[in-house]
């Protein structure tokens, strides 16, 4: 059973500072140990304050490669594009920010195969993966439902998959590409950052459900061998 530690904060700003500090330490350790760091960062809104603080860190950014842990299948520059948000923050620091969706396409399964090919040149396992969680228990873009089985139980060699969530999430009603469960759970470090009681409740329920959880986050957490920190602000 994965060792899970909750880190609770009075507010999101306090959490952002702690998350930024932890990610900085992980990046520094990866560079010390292997000369570079390849990290996957969650999309969505919760982690943005932490990313802005992290970008201020004195790091050897040219040795850091950042990919979005999942991506909406939209053109670069679209407000829904996760890599666009990450590029705005980290490209000016000299980091390599790598899109995982080559171009917007209606064929989301082809986009998933392209993403998988795009990521073959990265060193694996990832040095770090930051996950967000939705109130339906999704993480990255592994959503409950039919795609879940492929993303969660998909072929081990796949690092990315195209998914069409059903129903489409209201905040980003588009097809997506996501890191596979395998790519996530084999990372050298996995961390979660969430806010609000609803997400805390769904994660705690998912952890209790264990490896057969109805929630993707439960299945991912059950399969990660390393200790996981869950940062939470009310
Ligand atoms: C995405 C994310 C997704 C996100 C959760 C939480 O592209 O939407 O990667 O998994 O982390 O939906 O999003 P918020 O932080 O915006 O609530």
From TrEMBL:
**EC number(s) reported in the record:** 3.1.1.31
The pathway is:
Carbohydrate degradation; pentose phosphate pathway; D-ribulose 5-phosphate from D-glucose 6-phosphate (oxidative stage): step 2/3
- Provide the alphabetized UniProt keywords: Hydrolase
- Enumerate the catalysed reactions: 6-phospho-D-glucono-1,5-lactone + H2O = 6-phospho-D-gluconate + H(+)
Give any Pfam family that matches: Glucosamine_iso
Name the Gene3D superfamilies for this protein.
3.40.50.1360
Molecular function per GO: 6-phosphogluconolactonase activity
**InterPro entries of this UniProt entry?**
6-phosphogluconolactonase_DevB, 6PGL, Glc/Gal-6P_isomerase, NagB/RpiA_transferase-like
Q: Give GO terms for biological process.
A: carbohydrate metabolic process; pentose-phosphate shunt
Cite the Glucosamine/galactosamine-6-phosphate isomerase domain residue spans from the record: 11-221
- Family label: Belongs to the glucosamine/galactosamine-6-phosphate isomerase family. 6-phosphogluconolactonase subfamily.
Cited function = Hydrolysis of 6-phosphogluconolactone to 6-phosphogluconate.
**NCBIfam families on file:** pgl (TIGR01198)
Name of protein: 6-phosphogluconolactonase
Q: Which organism is it from?
A: Sphingomonas ginsenosidivorax
